[in-house]
Amino acid sequence: MARRTKEEAQQTREKLIDAAEIVFHRTGVAQASLNEIAQEANLTRGAFYWHFKNKQDIFKAMLDRQSVQLGQLDPTLDELGDADPLARLRASILFVVREIERDPSRRRVYEIVFQKCEMTAQNEPIGTLLRNNVLIGSERMHAAFTSAIRQNYMPKNLDIDSAITHLHVQVTGVVYLWLLLPGTFDLQSQATRLVDLFFSQLPEHFLSGEV
After folding, report:
1. CB 131 within 8 A of CB 60
2. pTM above 0.90, yes or no
3. In terms of Cα–Cα distance, which of 20, 25, 21 is closest to 35?
4. Does one domain contain both 142 and 171?
């Protein structure tokens, strides 16, 4: 009985996250209300508060669910093993891009982040959350570049901070443009070209001048 209750609670939590995703996408995060989310899930406001403290809490849960799912699905960790860490980084980035293009829910979440998440004073906690997520991504990139230098795949004077900034701009930019102008170009092929161009230029254009 306890196991069933736990499973039912998890199902209710997932229904609320599904509903929040739909409501955030439909109305924008700032305009979304907890009542709307509960109604979309066919649940009570009390059920919402049993699982989440507020709008920011369920927004974070929505992002966390995407991250966990992508991590579980990403085949690059097993397929590439101990390969060049930048090859693994490249494969992981392109896997996420492919999932955005393939999966309607993932695409919807990215549309919420890029198009429906107003940076108002009311939404500042969510803005902080998004900035923290970018910093986490930067830390992972930094670890990959550092490992590549240590294993002699990249020169020791690689300007890691500059490389991270450019990689963020290229990947975020092509995804944002594709979401803004759907159907105007193939996301996977264009992202692959941009990412491959970036990595091919790393040893030549992203050096700090210090050896």
Report:
1. no
2. no
3. 20
4. yes
Contact status, residue 129 vs residue 59, Cβ threshold 8 Å:
yes
User: What's the structural domain count of the chain?
Assistant: 2
Asked if residue 92 and residue 179 are part of one domain, the reply reads: yes
**Residue 167 and residue 142 in one domain:** yes
Tell me the pLDDT tens digit for each residue of 178-199: 999 988 999 999 999 999 999 9
**Nearest Cα to 164, choosing from 125, 208, 121, 129?**
208
78, pLDDT greater than 90: no
Which domain covers residue 132, as residue numbers? Answer: 56-206
Contact 111, 25 (CB under 8 A): yes
The span from the CA of 40 to the CA of 43, in Å, is 8
Biggest CA pair distance of the chain: 65
For the stretch 61-73, pLDDT in tens is: 999 988 876 666 5
172 near 115, Cβ under 8 Å? no
The CA distance from 21 to 58, in Å, is 9
Structure tokens at 6: 């736990």
